[in-house]
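Question: Send over one sample?
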Amino acid sequence: MSEPNQEDVPRKRQASVVLAGVMLIACVLFMLGFAGMFYLWLGQKAQIVIDAADNAAEIEDMKADILAAHQELEQTRIELAKQQDGLRLELEQEADNIQASRRKEQAVLNRRSFTMKTPKVEPLGFPQPIKTGVWTGVLRLDGDKPPTYILPSDGLALIKPSQSYLPQKACAPFTFNQDGSKFFVIDSQSILRRYDSTTLQEEVKLVLGADAYDIAFTVGGLSVSFPSRNKIWMIDPESMNVLGEVEIDRPTHLAATPTSPRVYAIGFEEAIAFDPKTLSVVWTSKGSQVNKNSTLARRLTNKALSFVMHPNGERLMTGSHYSSSTADVHQFIANESDVEYLASGRAKPIREYPSLVVHPDGHWLAVPQLVIPRKEDHQTLALLDANNLKNPSLVIRTDDHITACNFDAVRGQIVAAVGTNHLYTYSMAGEPIEQYHFEGLGEVIRLTAFMMGGRYFTWSNKGMWVIDLDPDRIKADVPTAYHQHPEPETP
């Protein structure tokens, strides 16, 4: 084995020292680089914190600026409100000054001339109601007969149009309010009068200025038709002021209930329906399915002699002229979009103006002087099922012609005006109950039962009467100053 070279030993040691120095220098450089990077990262983080602090300060400054601007706007608003109040007070003061000046001028004019009168301006040109609050009729006591209260009237209102569109018509416009506590009549002088149903005291009147054909109490007020004016008025039943009008060519009959949303009216060549609150026309027969059939169309025009609405507000019934000796009773369904024909029943009346009366429960329809087909008995009163008009369910025959009738729902009776000066009462089965004779009553064409039962309103060619089958009740309602006994007959 050879021995190591003595010269190689120092060389190896020198190389190891150099290698250790290089490694030391590398470690120092690495540490310096890491420290530099760390300080750089730390500086960035510090800058971020400084920037965030600056932004927060700016935000606070902006909030302070906004608050100051808001306070400035609020102050401006307060100042403007004060200025507005000042202007309003100035205007009110100026208006008061103008009114005071006008009053002074009017006072001067009044002192100068007592004959100078300022005409009263009526709203929309309608007449104004007149409060009365008096008993205008006379209570007649005639022995043990039911007492009668005779209202002032010259008889029935008689319409005599110059045109041929309407026959001469004896009218008896009459209606109750919804609860029956008041009744309304239009007398022969074209004056609408409101009475208390209990005391029979006249409360207010309205001079209409034209012949009225029909009247109906609706959810919007009193509807009154004027053929000569081509108008239907709506009147407030409380104040009796005219609220407005609806235009239709020569209106006659009206059909409505106190709760129905529509009022149906028959004109010369068409029928209409209108909203009683807005007075806007919502349906006309000219655009209806009914108008496509000329026969049906005539039943809802001037050929109709009577026109009533079923208590449910969904059906209409007419008595229409068919020929010189016959007439039809027709029924229509009234819905929101149209009026549709439902049924008919033909019979022979001897009067020119058959009247239709519907029982308050809506089941019965009474028609004076209709006869069973092929029988020549004119002195009858027919009761028809309102749901089936083909054949009368009951026929009441009398010894004279029946001119008018109605149902007394409280007493469960039928009341009929028979011939002249007579009222007959029947059960709902047609059995006679009582016959009453009232001298001077005349031939009644309108007979209506009060809701209290036993009290009836009649309208004849002699005038308007209220008949009460309870003598003590009507005596208590009417003051004794308005009582009178009939004068004794001269032998």
